[in-house]
Amino acid sequence: MSERELRWAGRNGQKDELRRRVWSILEETGYGQGPIWNLISNFVDADKAAERLAQTEYWKAAKIIKCNPDIPQIPVRHRALLDGKLLYTPVPELVQDFPFVLLDPKKLQDQGIDLLEAAHIEGALKYGQKVQFTEMMPMDVFVVGSVAVATNGGRTGKGGGFADLELGVFGELNIIPEHAKVVTTVHDVQLVDESEVPLQAHDFPLDGIFTPTQSIEIKSLHPRPKGVCWDAVQADQFKDIPFLETLRGELERQ
User: Fold this and answer.
1) Residue ranges per domain, the chain?
2) With a threshold of 0.70, does the pTM exceed it?
3) Whole-angstrom Cα distance, residue 158 to residue 93?
């Protein structure tokens, strides 16, 4: 597969074109850093976006954070650990038999582990406690990676559907409290028109967007899904995500 060939092309043609455009902009402007295509790509001043998120009252009050494992959110994960918060981060693309690891900053520091190292996904997988979805505690802030976002709360990721799938499972397990916020950090050039990311039934709307220059609070009227929209789960997701079929069976038996 060539660098610019979309890995998950064909699921949604409109979003495929949007991803191509945003990745091209990140590449051409130099605001993207490192590899860009088919990724939640790193961006210039990602640490400033993370700092804006950390200044919100709901972040300060949060005890437990969930954050995606991608490079631009390293500053978010590092800040969560520095602030003494428990941190859940998923295994990239959910490809292991265990979907998440739990990082406890106090335990890490007691063991002499550098928190910045633990904030990188390699360190998280090395030092974190492996957990199943059913072992997870309710969380206060859910940080998701995004390729493009809009002020209606719409977003698109890299195309694999991992964020909405995770959030759907959390909904099934009743571990998304009403007060919880779903937020993202992106570069300003990743903001697009609302018409380009219409919210669908299985989409979780964003409550906040944080860029290096803006803190955007969103009051979306789109309801949060109560669980997984299994009809929207792709056949390759069942194939590639080892625990998904088992989890579906467990949820159906509840």
Assistant:
1) 13-211+226-242
2) yes
3) 11
For residue 248, give every residue at least 6 positions away whose Cβ sits within 8 Å of its Cβ, in sequence order, or none: 228, 230
Cβ count within 10 A of residue 155: 26
Cα–Cα distance for residue pair 48/210, rounded to 1 Å:
9
List, for residues 75-110, the tens digit of each pLDDT value.
999 999 999 999 999 887 655 567 899 999 999 999
CATH class name, domain 13-211+226-242 = alpha beta
- Antiparallel, parallel or unpaired: β 141-144 and 155-156: unpaired
Within 13 Å of residue 154, how many CA atoms lie on the same side as its CB? 15
Strands 42-43 and 148-149: unpaired
Tokens of 151: 């002020």
pLDDT tens sequence across 122-146: 999 999 999 988 899 999 999 999 9
Nearest to 169 by CA among 204, 207, 124, 197: 204
Residue 13 vs residues 5, 61, 139: alpha-carbon distances, Å: 13, 40, 33
